[in-house]
Design brief:
Layout (H helix, E strand, L loop, with lengths): L4 H21 L2 H20 L6 H20 L6 H24 L5 H25 L3 H22 L6 H27 L3 H21 L4
Helix pairs in contact: 1-2, 1-8, 2-3, 2-8, 3-4, 4-6, 5-6, 5-7, 6-7, 7-8
Length: 219
């Protein structure tokens, strides 16, 4: 319900500030105290909508839950096995989002422009990361492919003239923010570990997830 939005977003802002604080301190216990709760909130945001398209809602909700699992795994960022598990959870979550977006999408100029942009940018990101990937080459390629597909799916949804304008804008902006936030995750893991990756990437990521979650009441 719309009256719940301010409560959810204020709570999310407080938890995000705490998350960044504990990221700066590199406190695993601190991260465990705030990050799961913050990620649960984007699931709550989806559940509190009035849902018109139940297939879309179920697919997006599955994606949100998988991303929650990924968020918890990434607390243990430099444990390779746990990181890979988190990557797999996010990969599966992106698959759910991609299916949801394409089921509501159609072709159009926005979709084709986004497809070209994703192909160019994703190719550049891959060659930027490649020297540092080692045994993670395969999983990272798979991740780049599916997150690009998710962004293209969001652009297909945006191209559908029969859908609510606000809902389409939330999905498209959310998918693009998600895409960019993952570049900062990759930079932190494979290129240069520094707090700035978190300062930029985490607000983008959570904004994206809440946008996608709130879209379940509009699509």
């Amino acid at each position: 319900m719309i009256q719940h939005y301010p409560i959810i977003l204020i709570a999310a802002a407080v938890l995000l500030a705490g998350l960044l604080f504990f990221e700066k301190k590199e406190s695993t216990k601190g991260l465990l105290s705030v990050k799961p709760l913050l990620s649960v909130l984007f699931i709550v945001a989806a559940l509190t909508q009035v849902h018109m398209n139940m297939t879309y809602f179920y697919l997006v909700s599955a994606g949100l839950v998988l991303c929650l699992i990924g968020d918890v795994c990434l607390i243990f960022f430099f444990n390779k096995k746990v990181f890979t598990t988190g990557l797999g959870a996010f990969l599966a979550g992106h698959v759910m989002y991609t299916i949801a977006f394409f089921t509501c999408g159609t072709t159009g100029a926005v979709m084709w422009a986004t497809t070209v942009a994703c192909l160019v940018l994703s190719t550049g990101v891959f060659f930027w990361l490649k020297p540092s990937l080692g045994t993670m080459l395969g999983p990272v390629i798979a991740y780049i492919v599916i997150i690009s597909a998710m962004a293209i799916g969001a652009s297909a949804l945006k191209s559908n003239p029969g859908l609510d304008m606000t809902g389409k804008a939330l999905v498209y902006a959310g998918a693009l923010l998600f895409y960019v936030s993952d570049i900062f995750v990759a930079r932190h893991r494979f290129v240069k570990k520094e707090f700035m990756n978190r300062v930029i990437g985490l607000p983008m990521y959570y904004t994206a997830q809440f946008m996608i979650a709130f879209s379940t009441g509009l699509i």
